[in-house]
Amino acid sequence: MFCVSALGLLLLLSALMALCAVGILYHNKVVSFEILHEQYENATATLMMQENKAKEKEGMYEVLEVKYQELDFACNISQSRRCEEGWKSLGLKCYYFSTEKLNWMQSRDYCVGKGGHLVIINSQMEQNFAFSQIGETHWIGLNDLEAEGKWMWVNNQPLKEMDVKFWFTDGPNEPDNWKKEDPSGEDCAALGHEIGDINKWIDASCLKQKRFICEK
After folding, report:
1. Is there a single domain that holds both residue 107 and residue 167?
2. pTM (two decimals)
3. Which domain holds residue 43?
4. Most buried residue, 9, 40, 117, 161, by CB count within 10 Å?
């Protein structure tokens, strides 16, 4: 009887020791998981902070880029370029203001044939100069033909968020991709609203006949 009791006690002690070992292992795993989870959260927070800082720096870079373009353009104005007959000078650039009317694609090709391109407006001064020379709407070198809403200049540079923009905003706001006249929409930009302010941009059907501005 004594041997049986001793054996039972020994088995009970062994079971308790096994349970303690399992408990210790479980506790260690829980602690390890909590440590790993905390490290993961810290790493995620650090990554988010770095992403926010990167976005802030990107925004600052775009602002500085716009300022540089305006300063560079202003410096160029102090210099003078002799342009061929029919072209007008502003700084180191020459501009051609057409009297004939073509659609946007024809206007683009015409400017290329003249050794230039449809005008790319990078500053308030260039915008002011362009609209001071016109009395009606003119095509400029901006379009979203490849992807709706992604406006690109004819030099394949996108119209970025921080770039200068002069869209018509006196209602309805432009660009509005109006499809009543052309089911394909309005994918080409012009300087000058057809019924009002000639100092603003509008989007229009690329098939419309308009005067245009070349630059070189």
Report:
1. yes
2. 0.64
3. 1-80
4. 117
